[in-house]
Amino acid sequence: MRKTVLILAGVVVLTVLTAVLHFAHVEPVAVFVVAGAALGGLAWVISIATESVGDRFGPAVTGALQSTLGNLPELFIVLFALSAGELVVARTSIMGSLFANGLLVLGLTIIAGARAAPDGVMRFRTRLPQDTTTLLLLTIAIIVLLGLSDQVGDRASKHATTISVIGAVVLLVVFTIWLLDYLRSDEPAEEAHSEKARSPLPFKAAIAVLAVSGLAAALVSDWFVEALDPAVKSLGISKAFTGLVIVAIAGNAVENVVGITLAAKRRSDLAISIVKNSVAQISAFLFPALVLCSLAFDTRLTFVLTPVFIGALVVMAVAMWQITGDGRAIVFEGAALVGAYIVLATLMWYE
Amino acid sequence: MRKTVLILAGVVVLTVLTAVLHFAHVEPVAVFVVAGAALGGLAWVISIATESVGDRFGPAVTGALQSTLGNLPELFIVLFALSAGELVVARTSIMGSLFANGLLVLGLTIIAGARAAPDGVMRFRTRLPQDTTTLLLLTIAIIVLLGLSDQVGDRASKHATTISVIGAVVLLVVFTIWLLDYLRSDEPAEEAHSEKARSPLPFKAAIAVLAVSGLAAALVSDWFVEALDPAVKSLGISKAFTGLVIVAIAGNAVENVVGITLAAKRRSDLAISIVKNSVAQISAFLFPALVLCSLAFDTRLTFVLTPVFIGALVVMAVAMWQITGDGRAIVFEGAALVGAYIVLATLMWYE
Amino acid sequence: MRKTVLILAGVVVLTVLTAVLHFAHVEPVAVFVVAGAALGGLAWVISIATESVGDRFGPAVTGALQSTLGNLPELFIVLFALSAGELVVARTSIMGSLFANGLLVLGLTIIAGARAAPDGVMRFRTRLPQDTTTLLLLTIAIIVLLGLSDQVGDRASKHATTISVIGAVVLLVVFTIWLLDYLRSDEPAEEAHSEKARSPLPFKAAIAVLAVSGLAAALVSDWFVEALDPAVKSLGISKAFTGLVIVAIAGNAVENVVGITLAAKRRSDLAISIVKNSVAQISAFLFPALVLCSLAFDTRLTFVLTPVFIGALVVMAVAMWQITGDGRAIVFEGAALVGAYIVLATLMWYE
Predict the structure, then answer these.
(1) Which of C211, C220, C202 is nearest to C13 (CA)?
(2) Would you call C134 an interface residue with chain A, using a CB distance cutoff of 8 Å?
(3) Rounded CA gap, C42 and B171, in Å?
(4) Which member of A2, A104, B96, B171 lies 3.0 to 4.6 Å from B248 by CB, making a disulfide possible if both were Cys?
(5) How far apart are CA B201 and CA B211, in angstroms?
(6) Would you tell me how many other CB atoms lie within 10 Å of the CB of residue C100?
């Protein structure tokens, strides 16, 4: 409880500091760094508050709420990027979150989990990995079809927005069907156990924290995106690398730490569940929701991506499925996922 | 028995009506619609007649015969399209049949089967899904290699016909090896059961019906393809959409209804078997057979396809494998397959 | 023992003959053919000698050593090709070895194994097939990312060498982690059995044979590559076909014969292990090691490949996984792999 309050205070300080730096018009690199840290902290606060609110509803609802609201900062980053006309930042943020979760975090979680297991084999239920693969494959189906149509430049490529909207609706419907079924078939055993391990806030306090931190996340995201462009220019880092690696790791820092810590404590199912839920949500909920939201902006987000991203997505989906689909994973499999992320990050460095 | 005779009469009426409309040179849209309905009916008649003939041979042979002859109308459509120089219609018909069966029908069958199951999980043997994936992967190997060679425009791309012919022979050999082994390892339990459920025709009547309906299918296909071009133009629908969606759903209507009905009756294995057999046959028998047949025409059919079709094929094969390879499927997985089909159909609408 | 000595003598004769023909400047086709046969023989000698040396270390170390040193001739071929500036030969040799092992040899091994099994189903442990798929997927991730970047011609494509070097280091690290774990978790049952079946050389003799045959392999590879260019020209065969099919089958002849023979004797696990180890080594050890070695030459080897090779690699990896991932394989699955190889070889013939 006390530790929670201390960290909360730290996040408040970071948020206020971001505001001060932003309005003082200091060097954008400083705003960028502090805002990134504040966003990571806010994601953690939202995750804690949701968990506390979720005590009223049971563990599966909590898990789903947690992932959904935990993605709030990313949602705001992409929305502000779109309203600022920064389509490349918007796209790379979404892709970056997917790759950070599906390759880096999953890989590190597997390494931690397999090292903690007495026989070196991390074991977990196969339901969620399989379902995540299915959702990811549907997103990829839309992305591959639109991407190839765009590359060829055929007639359909001129209707990418319309097709993306229909694809987004299809994805959201399938995601909803899945989520309802997933929540219904909840097996509380391990997750209920986890609830006690943490020390959540009282219900009313949690609601208040949720509202405030949600608002703060929106503001900080705005300042973060505003500082991004000049900061990156003065640092000489490519925009693709910033979006795909820096923003992605900042925006998913908490999920990452929680996932890896749980895996090291041999709570394999919960660890895998957090990482996989995140991947499922980003690909089949956040991405299509943002495509629909972007209809309100001048800059439209579609499912059209560059070939390198499409290739990386396909390889990631197949690798995730191959490695986690059998409910067993060993150290080298985690290392292979991390390795793929390193190569991808290297490529983005030079873009 | 009585119901069968009534439906038979309906199909005869539709077929005669198509002939009348065709020779009366009425509005092509009318010919197109009636011929489409007649083709669907003839497919059903051929399926019933084959089943009755198959009583002499046992269930596995029946199933194989049923799929093979059930694809007769599609075979004729493609042949007539090729002889009329309509390469796009020929290609999209084959692709459309694959996508209709592998995405739409499989998806609906899974939804029906999972809803009928007491625990919401449709269960079936994994042998056929795995074998179908293998056959589909071999077809895709040929298509991907030729497609990439064609896109790059390297030296081999000038020999696409020769390479396609060798690929077709390879596919037919592998398909034959598979079919012989599959028929030999037949497990009649459920299928034998199914035989009694229907009321087949007497052997001699069945043979006669088979001959007549085969001939009728050939004629109606010819008229259908002839009416296709002007009908589509006056309706303002893209040719790709017509071939890929309308012709495909008409040509596979019966398999569809039978598959979904069986799944709803919890006869999962038989339902999956009909859909999967259809996919296996089209990809590894009908397609290569048509490539070889087309050597007799001026318009050669090869395995060279547009990138969008190649991408859709690869995604479909992987999704089918991922969803049915474990012998279990739930509602959202069926919804994902149907969703992928909707997105593909939308794309084709704009081509 | 006696048979071994006789074959050894034959290999010595072939090697000497290659030297004589090379320095006598005879028709390059003759040098090419004799050198190819000598290389095959030297691969076999190295494999026997390694096995004998390995008696000191146990079966898993032996297997790993055997594959590694068995790939020596290929290593030299590629090195000499690179130093001669023959980038196409270098690349196609590596790809050819992968395809020969992963499609042709695996397919023939499965056909032999399934035919030998009483119920027509070859059964084997799934660990190695799964691990090989993971390693292959990591290699493919690098190749796909670089290949797409190269096709698009984006900024990163100008740094293909740097990215390849980082990718190579990542691959070697992951491969080492895997190998150490694989050797540690060795299950000697069957492999120990195999040791007695053969008649290995005494330890010191084996060391001597190893040194001499390694040196001989280096020399013969040099002459082979030198004769390649004029020989292929005078035969009128495409360079791609030579590298991908002829060199590949010559360089892997022994693994092939051993794998198929073991499968026919129902030693499924060992047979699959040799083929899979070979694929894993080439993709995750030999290829990245050669990328690093090539830094010493003017001609740099990168992971950038032509689209046809990338497509073939992806299809091969998925097919290998789909067919062997479940620990069971039947005749038609082997036939499908061989069929894919035939189509690939046909395509290369026309390049």
Answers:
(1) C220
(2) yes
(3) 36
(4) B96
(5) 14
(6) 27
Angle at C139 between CA C133 and CA C141, to 5 degrees: 100
- Which residues in chain C (242-271) have CB-CB distances under 8 A to chain A? none
Residue of B137, B146, B171 lying closest to C318 (CB–CB): B137
First to last CA, chain B: 45
Q: Classify residue C257 as left (phi > 0), alpha (psi -120 to 50) or beta.
A: alpha
Nearest to A152 among B307, B319, B330 (CB): B307
Subunits close to B (at least 3 CB pairs below 8 A) = A, C
Q: Which chain B residues are closer than 8 Å to C336 by Cβ?
A: 134-135, 137-138, 174
Q: State how far the Cα of B320 lies from the Cα of B314, in Å rounded to an integer.
A: 10
Give me the residues paired with residue A123 across strands. A328
Q: What is the pLDDT of residue B200?
A: 61
Residue B329 main-chain phi, psi, to 5 deg: -150, 140
Backbone angles phi and psi of B26, in degrees to 5: -75, 180
Give the Cα separation of A238 and C241 in Å (integer): 41
Q: Do C178 and A332 touch (CB under 8 A)?
A: yes
Pairing of strands B328-330, C121-123: unpaired
Higher model confidence: residue B126 or residue C169? Answer: C169
Average model confidence (pLDDT) across chain A: 84
The answer to whether C134 contacts A332, with C-beta atoms less than 8 Å apart, is yes
pLDDT of A107 over the 60 cut: yes
Shortest Cα distance, chain C CAs vs residue A142, angstroms: 19
- Judging contacts by C-beta atoms under 8 Å, the chain A residues touching residue B140 are none
pLDDT at B104 over 90: yes
| Backbone phi, psi, residue A123, to 5° | -120, 140
Amino acid (1-letter code) at residue A299: T
Residue, of C1 and B133, whose pLDDT is higher: B133
Contacts with A340 (C-beta within 8 Å, 6 or more apart), sequence order = A103, A107, A315, A316, A319, C138, C141, C142
The Cα–Cα gap between C203 and C51 comes to 10
For C266-302, the pLDDT digits (tens) are 888 878 887 888 888 899 999 999 999 999 988 899 9
Q: Which residues of C touch B130 (CB under 8 A)?
A: 322, 326
Q: Collect all residues with Cβ–Cβ distance below 8 Å to B213 and sequence separation of at least 6.
A: B11, B42, B45, B46, B49
Distance CA B175, CA B169 (A): 10
Rounded distance between C-alpha atoms, residue B136 and residue B144, angstroms: 12
Contact A331 C166 (CB under 8 A): no
Counting as contact any 3 or more CB pairs under 8 A, the partners of C are: A, B
User: Which residue type does A323 have?
Assistant: I
Question: In 3D, which of B93, B140, B66 has the Cα closest to residue B301?
Answer: B93
Task: Work out the pLDDT band at B195, boundaries 50, 70, 90.
Answer: very low
CA distance C41 to B230: 67
B307 in reach of chain A (CB within 8 A):
yes
| Beta partners for residue A328, in sequence order | A123
pLDDT tens for each residue of A277-315: 888 989 999 999 999 999 998 889 999 998 999 999 999
Do residues C173 and A107 make contact, with C-beta atoms less than 8 angstroms apart? no
Among C104, C65, C79, C132, CA closest to C252? C104
ipTM for the predicted complex: 0.85
Chosen for mutation from A245, A314, A315, A320 (greatest number of chain C CBs closer than 10 Å) is A315
Residue A343 has a pLDDT of: 93
On whether any CB of chain B is under 8 Å from the CB of A17, the answer is no
Tokens for B48, please give them: 């019933």
Q: Is B118 exposed, middle or buried (0-12, 13-18, 19+ CB in 10 A)?
A: exposed
